[in-house]
Design goal:
The protein is an alpha/beta fold. It folds into three domains: 169 residues, P-loop containing nucleotide triphosphate hydrolases (Rossmann fold), CATH 3.40.50; 39 residues; 138 residues, Zinc Finger, Delta Prime, domain 3 (Up-down Bundle), CATH 1.20.272. It contains 16 helices and five strands. Helix 4 links the parallel strand 2 and strand 3. Helix 8 crosses helix 9. It is elongated, with a radius of gyration of 25 Å. The termini are far apart. Bound molecules: zinc ion. Zinc ion (ZN) binds next to helix 3.
Length: 354
C-alpha cells in the first residue's frame, strides 16, 4: 500500500515525503514506535515509493505502474523483505537468521533488475542477534548507490548502537483511540462499545487491540474489577485469596489482569480530577468509577497503582511466586494498607486483616 494509506502518522509521513520529493532519501531509516501502529505498512509504502516508475508530486508511489503492483505483491526483484521465517509448526523463528542477511548481500551484489532504486525492509530488526546485526552492518555502511534500507522496530533499545548510528530514526506515534476502534470493528468484528473499550486498553496499537480482543477475560472485566476493587474492602478474605489463586493459574492472562486494574485506578484518578468520561478507558463503567472515586482519596489510588506495578514487576521480572504475589495484591487492593501511606503496605495489610 502507498504511504497515503497509512493512518494517523502525519509526522512520520511528512519526514518521508520531504525526503522523497527533495531527492534526499537517506540510505537507512529506522522506523521506531509501538507495535501495531502502521510502521511495517509505512515501510512497505516507502519501498513502493522508492521503486515506483511514476511517483506522485508528493513523492508517494502512484500505486498503478507495474513496479507498484509487483512491489505490493511482494514480487518486485528490487524489493527485499527480511523478516523472521516461518517454522514447520506454523510459528515464527526466534530470530532473523544470519543466512538471510548473507542471502540479501549476495542479491545486492548483483546489478539492479528493473527499478531505478532498490529497497530493503527489515521487519522486527531487534530480532537480529549480534552476529547477524554485525553482518548487516557492513552493508549498512556501504549500501551501494540507489539502495535504501528501512529497519522496523518496536524496541530500538535492543539494536546495536552501531546499527542505530547508521540509521535516520523516524518516530511513529500511538494511534488515536477512534482509529484503533475502527480497525477493531473491521478486523475483529467487535461491536462499537467493545471496540471502544479494547481500543482504550490497547493504548494506540491495533496489533495489541487485536490480541486483547481475543481474550476471554474481557467478558469478565466488570465483574473482576468489582471483586478486586470492592468498596466493602476486606469483607471476604477467603474469597479474595481464592480469586488470586484462580488468576495465578492462568499466567498468560496476567498482563491483561494488571492492565485492567491499572487502567481502572487510573480512571478513578481522572474522575477525581473532574475529567470528562471520554478520557476514561472503562467508559461503560463511568458511573461506578464516579461513585468509587468519592470513597478513595488520591493517595489511596496511587498506593493501589504502585502495588499493581510492583506485583507485575515481581511476577514477570523477578520470577516471584505468582500466587503469593497476587494474594498479596488482592489484599492490598482491599485497602487495609491505607492507614500506612509511607510504610510497607503489604505488611500493613496483613496486620490490618487479622
Ligand atoms: Zn508506481
Amino acid at each position: 500500500m502507498p504511504l497515503r494509506d497509512v493512518e494517523a502518522q502525519d509526522h512520520a509521513l511528512d519526514v518521508l515525503r520531504r525526503a522523497l520529493t527533495g531527492g534526499r532519501v537517506h540510505h537507512a531509516y529506522l522506523f521506531a514506535g509501538p507495535d501495531g501502529v502502521g510502521k511495517t505498512l509505512a515501510a512497505r509504502g516507502m519501498a513502493e515509493a522508492l521503486l515506483c516508475g511514476a511517483p506522485r508530486p508528493d513523492g508517494d508511489a502512484c500505486g498503478e505502474c507495474h513496479h507498484c503492483k509487483r512491489a505490493r505483491a511482494g514480487q518486485h526483484p528490487d524489493q527485499h523483505l527480511i523478516a523472521r521465517q516461518a517454522k514447520a509448526d506454523g510459528g515464527l523463528e526466534q530470530a532473523i537468521k544470519i543466512d538471510q542477511v548473507r542471502e540479501l548481500q549476495r542479491s545486492l551484489s548483483f546489478k539492479r533488475f528493473e527499478a531505478a532504486r532498490r529497497a530493503v525492509v527489515i521487519a522486527e530488526a531487534e530480532r537480529m542477534n549480534t552476529s547477524t546485526a554485525n553482518a548487516l552492518l557492513k552493508t549498512l555502511e556501504e549500501p551501494g548507490e540507489g539502495t535504501h534500507f528501512v529497519l522496523v522496530t518496536g524496541a530500538p533499545h535492543l539494536l546495536l548502537p552501531t546499527i542505530l548510528s547508521r540509521c535516520q530514526r523516524v518516530r511513529f506515534a500511538p494511534l488515536p483511540r477512534p482509529v484503533v476502534a475502527r480497525h477493531l470493528q473491521a478486523g475483529a468484528g467487535l461491536d462499537g462499545d467493545t471496540a471502544d473499550l479494547v481500543a482504550g486498553l490497547a493504548e494506540g496499537s491495533v496489533g495489541r487491540g487485536l490480541s486483547l480482543a481475543k481474550s476471554p477475560l474481557l467478558a469478565e472485566r466488570a465483574e473482576l474489577l468489582a471483586k478486586l476493587d470492592d468498596p466493602r474492602g476486606l469483607h471476604d478474605v477467603a474469597g479474595r485469596l481464592d480469586l488470586a489463586e484462580a488468576l495465578a493459574e492462568k499466567k498468560e492472562d496476567l498482563p491483561l489482569v494488571f492492565h485492567l486494574l491499572r487502567t481502572w485506578f487510573r480512571d478513578l484518578m481522572l474522575v477525581r480530577e473532574g475529567l470528562p468520561d471520554e478520557r476514561l478507558v472503562h467508559r461503560d463503567l463511568a458511573e461506578r468509577a464516579r461513585a468509587r472515586a468519592t470513597q478513595l482519596n488520591g493517595e489511596q489510588i496511587l498506593h493501589r497503582l504502585a502495588a499493581i506495578n510492583a506485583t507485575e514487576r515481581g511476577v514477570f521480572e523477578q520470577a516471584a511466586n505468582a500466587r503469593l504475589a497476587l494474594e498479596t495484591l488482592a489484599l492490598r487492593l482491599a485497602g487495609a494498607a491505607d492507614a500506612r501511606p509511607s510504610g510497607d503496605a503489604a505488611r500493613g495489610v496483613v496486620r490490618g486483616g487479622r
